[in-house]
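Sequence, please.
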């Protein structure tokens, strides 16, 4: 009987450990901070790794390594990252109707420090919604034909 209780307890502990490990795993669209590499003092991305370790947010370098697309848009001092398989908006106003209704990006400053998220809504679908972060209407970006709302941390 005691052997059965011990075996049952080991099974419960193993299941709990597996559940905890799974909750720390990254998904393809949202990397988990626990999966980030430790900061390296000798790599060129050392400052970015330290940023990731101190802020709890991955850097554009980390995201690119996980299959995200990161780029520098015409807006100065900004890096924009798009999750895998999302793609990027095409130029044109209005955008083609077969383009996604929305895009969600992660934003970083030029040094790779996380500054917030960006939500884009296609022109033909925007109906005057307010940006939750600012309380103001979304900002129209004519080049791509989407309305933009930037959410900053803590808002």
């Amino acid at each position: 009987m005691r052997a059965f209780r011990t075996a049952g307890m080991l099974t419960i502990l193993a299941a709990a450990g597996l559940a905890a490990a799974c909750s720390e795993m990254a998904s393809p669209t949202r990397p988990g901070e626990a999966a980030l590499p430790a900061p390296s003092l000798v790599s060129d991305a050392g400052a970015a790794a330290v940023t990731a370790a101190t802020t709890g947010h991955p850097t554009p370098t980390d995201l690119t390594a996980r299959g995200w697309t990161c780029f520098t848009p015409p807006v100065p001092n900004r890096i924009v990252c798009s999750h895998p398989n999302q793609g990027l908006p095409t130029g044109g106003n209005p955008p083609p109707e077969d383009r996604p209704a929305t895009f969600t990006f992660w934003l970083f400053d030029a040094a790779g420090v996380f500054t917030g998220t960006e939500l884009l809504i296609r022109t033909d679908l925007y109906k005057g919604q307010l940006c939750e972060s600012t309380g103001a209407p979304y900002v129209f970006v004519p080049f791509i034909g989407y309305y933009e709302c930037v959410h900053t941390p803590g808002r």
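Residues 108 and 131 are 19 Å apart (CA to CA).
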